[in-house]
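Sat 14:20. Reprocessing the chain from the morning session after the first attempt stalled halfway. Input below, unchanged.
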Amino acid sequence: MVQYISPTLDLSFAALSDATRRGIIDQLGRGDASITSLADRFQMTLTGMKKHVQVLERAGLVITQKVGRVRICGLGKGGLTAEAEWIEAHRRLFEARFEALDEIISEMNREGRDE
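Finished this time. Tokens:
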């Protein structure tokens, strides 16, 4: 069986699989923040937050820049366009299959009443 492999999608979905990282994305959607302020907000160590930010950065979901002694985080420029397109394509596939199943069940019910 041939499998579709997209390193970019793999990195994004792996990054988004963690509730803390999704929370970081939500927080950065409200505005840029330092790693220190994110660590305080999520009640974790600076080292722990740095690891989460690195995962998000590798996936292109977050960018960081050093301003003096502070590392500021912001949302990545790529957004989630490719991820949303992948999800939408698969959502349509599932929807089509469930509609076909509904039609089969309806047909079986009609046949059952006709007997």
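Residues 81-114 form the longest helix (34 residues).
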